């Protein structure tokens, strides 16, 4: 083997979209310290030859499609510190040889299909800190020996099947334990004594069959979260649950607790604008409340489902039936700087930050997407500043150089966040500084923290001035470059890597052709789409003047243009970083030109020359649904208008799912992507080849995609897709359901940390549905609102299996419209139209008034309102 290969130390291919299998030849690199193939499309089994890599420290294979059992040989890695295999399809049991890993600190194997008994021998691991194996098929019993792990801080085994076994009493004697999460594990017996766990912050034993009384001894003062809901606990709440300074959530709902609701739980707590406490005591047997029950404003107590709520002489209605809960911390508190100018440079990649030298310093950040795998808090906002200090101090940065751009809880619970790092005294980071920071993060050199737990690197965002960094593997010691430049001896896997990087290099060189040579040799004529020249579109968009801009997205800037024949169009001009290969671009054009439906924005033409790629669409003069809902018009939309807009959008999406070939999953449904033409008819926009369902190899396409990078807009993204990276047509159903809730309530998808689906579902559960309905839409038939709301909530269920498909959504909306009084009246009544438009009633009524039934068809193939299906369902 060539010396250049022999001395390779790191293989890092984070989010490179690789597919294929792991080759046994990986075992031929004795100096390898890091294998990082996270968030790719690797399949097959893990080769046992990896067990020969005596220098390996990090084995990072998260987010692939690896299957098969764990090889025994992986237990022969003397220097391994981090073992990360989550979000794969690994099966079989945990090998007992894993007990021989002397330096391993992290077992992250959650979300697989690992089964069987956990080996008690793992208790011999001297340095193991984090043991995360939730969401597998574990069975048997909980090994009491685990309490002997001297360094264990997190034990998370949720959703296992330890059928009718008890929590070992020895688990109450683990002095370093910070988090114990055994949710839905089939456990019985008593809640263990927690008094000997001085560092415990997070306890979740919910959804088991635990019985008996609550622990009588003092609860650790460090605790933030106690969830004992959905068990069969009885007795009263002991005094040990009061005076806990850091407590954020105490959940006892759905048990058999009785006696008096205490009034001293929040004693000695400091509650301010960034903190809060949720006490959930629903569905128990509490019959009375302690005198002086008057919690502070930041304390939310829920007592509905207890007999105490039936006592008319007690004035406690605010605790019985309320839906107010501790906000879900998805929003980072914003502080606007009104003393700075609105922008600092013409480039979109620069932002203003405040530094000790200048309160309005202009700098370009680079982004890092992280996920906290197992934080020990329920509500993160009070910990934002400590987290910023924790990160910056370990990166040798100043506190002001880090901005948390957004946070979002995911199922687990796990906390996803996007960080922006800013240079301190120059507008742009030097290359060496970017590499230094990214290497510390990518190599997990930031030490662990009890509050925040281990983190998961989801990706770097090297854009603008840092775009050249995206092709660098970090401090890779020439690893991949060495592979590309060296000679090949025997490894097929290495040959594949060489091929990949040679193709990448050729592709980059093609993009660097001079403008007079950049016209495509790969030219085709696409039927139904005009091939515009650059000069034509430049003239149409007034030299792409900023006054012609009407929007901007991930693809590029959108301009309004007027063609030589006087027709108005929308021109999407790709950013340089968004340019596709020519074959891919023409493939997309050919696909888009075949999509015809009255509820889809039509492609007019395209341009591919002079290092430019542009898509030309029909212009939508009435803007987007977002414009309508954000009160840019003086007159709000009526209920009937909203319902017809919802139906039109659903039909457009149904066409993409069922009649486009290959089928298309939109992936970013939101009000901004539902546009309105001159007749106020809705049309779905922003769909394309990046959302194609993959070919199954059986002559048709699947409606499921495994996506290495979750795409979409915060608040509209399917939580099941966020967790599993499996994108399906039900992901579009979820996003459209959020749009329905916006139409019905006028609320934002995320506002002040609250999620619209949870807010509305909570209101409906306690019979307060009409309290959240948007009052601006005037009168409405209550029966129709109830059915639409019920369907919207089905669409937004967390698990995709509980959601309807798009055809069911369309049929239900049509049934609801059929129930409207006077269904043949004009769509818009007097006062419904935006005041800045001058439509006559005749022009608007032509949209639907000519239909013979709710299922009338249009005049062109594939344009049927229900995508070629004429339902026979009668109104229910």
Mean pLDDT: 79
Specify the structural class: alpha/beta
| Top CATH class of the largest domain | Alpha Beta
General form: globular
Strand order of the largest sheet: 1-3-5-7-9-11-13-15-17-19-21-23-25
- Give the total of domains: 4
Tally the helices: 15
Model regions low in confidence, pLDDT < 50 over at least 5 residues: 322-330, 473-523, 689-702, 823-876
Evaluate the radius of gyration: 29 Å
* Helix content range: 10-25%
Q: What summary fits the major beta sheet?
A: 13 strands, parallel
Total count of strands: 43
Would you write up a description of this structure?
By secondary structure, the protein is of the alpha/beta class. The chain has four domains: 3-276, Alpha-Beta Horseshoe (Leucine-rich repeat, LRR (right-handed beta-alpha superhelix)), CATH 3.80.10.10; 351-477, Alpha-Beta Plaits, CATH 3.30.70.2040; 530-618, Phosphorylase Kinase, domain 1, CATH 3.30.200.20; 625-845, Transferase(Phosphotransferase) domain 1 (Transferase(Phosphotransferase), domain 1). Helix content is 19%, strand content 20%. It is built from 15 helices and 43 strands. The protein has a 13-stranded parallel beta sheet with strand order 1-3-5-7-9-11-13-15-17-19-21-23-25, with no helix packed on it. A six-stranded parallel beta sheet has the order 2-4-6-8-10-12, with no helix packed on it. A six-stranded parallel beta sheet has the order 14-16-18-20-22-24, with no helix packed on it. A hairpin with a 2-residue loop joins strand 36 (603-609) and strand 37 (612-618). The chain is globular and about 80 Å long.
């Amino acid at each position: 083997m060539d010396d250049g290969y022999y001395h390779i130390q790191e293989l890092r291919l984070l989010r490179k979209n690789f597919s294929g299998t792991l080759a046994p030849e990986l075992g031929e690199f004795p100096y390898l310290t890091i294998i990082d193939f996270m968030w790719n499309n690797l399949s097959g089994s893990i080769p046992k030859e990896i067990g020969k890599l005596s220098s390996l420290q990090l084995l990072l294979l998260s987010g692939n499609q690896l299957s098969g059992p764990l090889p025994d040989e992986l237990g022969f890695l003397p220097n391994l510190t981090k073992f990360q295999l989550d979000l794969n399809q690994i099966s079989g049991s945990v090998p007992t040889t894993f007990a021989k890993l002397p330096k391993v600190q992290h077992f992250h194997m959650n979300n697989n299909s690992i089964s069987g008994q956990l080996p008690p021998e793992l208790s011999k691991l001297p340095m193991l800190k984090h043991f995360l194996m939730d969401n597998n098929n574990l069975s048997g019993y909980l090994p009491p020996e685990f309490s002997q792990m001297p360094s264990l801080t997190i034990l998370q085994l949720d959703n296992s099947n330890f059928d009718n076994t008890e929590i070992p009493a020895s688990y109450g004697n683990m002095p370093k334990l910070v988090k114990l999460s055994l949710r839905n594990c089939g456990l019985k017996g008593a809640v263990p004594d927690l008094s000997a766990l001085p560092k415990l912050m997070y306890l979740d034993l919910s959804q088991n069959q635990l019985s008996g009384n609550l622990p009588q001894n003092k609860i650790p003062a460090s605790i933030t979260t106690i969830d004992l809901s959905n068990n069969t606990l009885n007795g009263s709440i002991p005094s040990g649950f009061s005076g806990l300074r850091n407590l954020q959530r105490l959940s006892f709902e759905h048990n058999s607790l009785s006696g008096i609701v205490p009034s001293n739980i929040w004693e000695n707590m400091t509650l301010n604008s960034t903190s809060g406490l949720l006490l959930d005591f629903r569905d128990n047997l509490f019959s009375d409340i302690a005198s002086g029950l008057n919690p502070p404003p930041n304390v939310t107590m829920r007592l509905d489902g207890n007999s105490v709520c039936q006592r008319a002489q007690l004035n406690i209605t605010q605790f019985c039936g309320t839906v107010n809960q501790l906000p879900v911390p998805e929003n980072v508190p914003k502080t606007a700087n009104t003393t700075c100018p609105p922008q600092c440079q013409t480039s979109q990649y620069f932002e203003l930050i405040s530094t000790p030298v200048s309160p309005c310093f202009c700098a370009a950040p680079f982004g890092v997407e992280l996920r906290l795998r197992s934080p020990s808090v329920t509500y993160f906002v009070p910990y934002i500043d400590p987290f910023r200090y924790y990160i910056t101090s370990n990166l040798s940065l100043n506190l002001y150089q880090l901005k948390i751009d957004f946070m979002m809880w995911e199922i687990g619970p796990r906390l996803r966040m996007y960080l922006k790092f800013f240079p301190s005294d120059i507008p742009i980071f030097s290359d060496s500084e970017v590499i230094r920071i990214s290497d510390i993060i990518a190599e997990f050199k930031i030490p662990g923290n009890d509050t925040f737990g281990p983190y998961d690197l989801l990706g770097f965002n090297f854009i603008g001035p840092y775009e050249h960094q995206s092709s660098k593997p970090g401090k890779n010691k020439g690893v991949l470059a060495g592979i590309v430049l060296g000679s090949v001896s025997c490894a097929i896997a290495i040959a594949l890597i060489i091929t990949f990087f040679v193709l990448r290099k050729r592709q980059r060189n093609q993009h660097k052709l001079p403008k007079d040579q950049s016209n495509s040799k790969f030219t085709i004529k696409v039927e139904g789409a005009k091939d515009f020249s650059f000069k034509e579109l430049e003239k149409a968009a007034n030299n792409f003047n900023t006054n012609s801009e009407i929007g901007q997205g991930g693809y590029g800037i959108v301009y309004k243009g007027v063609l030589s024949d006087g027709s108005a169009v929308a021109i999407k001009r790709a950013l340089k970083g968004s340019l596709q290969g020519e074959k891919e671009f023409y493939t997309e054009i050919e696909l888009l030109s075949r999509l015809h439906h009255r509820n889809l924005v039509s492609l007019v033409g395209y341009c591919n020359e002079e290092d430019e790629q542009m898509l030309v669409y029909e212009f939508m003069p009435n803007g987007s649904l977002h414009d309508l809902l954000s009160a840019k018009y003086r007159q709000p939309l009526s209920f009937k208008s909203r319902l017809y807009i919802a139906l039109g959008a659903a039909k457009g999406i149904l066409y993409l799912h069922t009649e486009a070939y290959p089928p298309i999953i939109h992936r970013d449904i939101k009000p901004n992507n539902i546009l309105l033409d001159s007749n106020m008819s809705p049309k779905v926009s922003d769909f394309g080849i990046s959302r194609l369902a993959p070919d199954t190899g059986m002559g048709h396409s699947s409606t499921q995609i495994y996506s290495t990078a979750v795409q979409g807009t915060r608040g509209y993204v399917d939580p099941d897709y966020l967790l599993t990276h499996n994108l399906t047509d039900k992901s579009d159903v979820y996003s459209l359901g959020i749009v329905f809730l916006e139409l019905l309530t006028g609320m934002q998808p995320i506002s002040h940390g609250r999620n619209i689906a949870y807010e509305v579902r909570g209101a409906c559960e306690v019979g307060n549905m009409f309290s959240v309905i948007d009052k601006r839409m005037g009168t409405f038939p209550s029966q129709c609102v109830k059915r639409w709301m019920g369907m919207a909530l089905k669409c937004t269920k967390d698990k995709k299996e509980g959601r309807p498909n798009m055809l069911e959504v369309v049929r239900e909306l049509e049934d609801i419209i059929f129930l409207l009084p006077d269904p043949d009246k004009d769509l818009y009544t007097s006062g419904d139209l935006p005041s800045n438009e001058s439509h006559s009633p005749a022009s608007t009524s032509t949209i639907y008034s000519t239909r013979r039934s709710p299922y009338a068809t249009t005049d062109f193939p594939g344009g049927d309102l229900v995508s070629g299906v004429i339902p026979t369902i009668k109104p229910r």
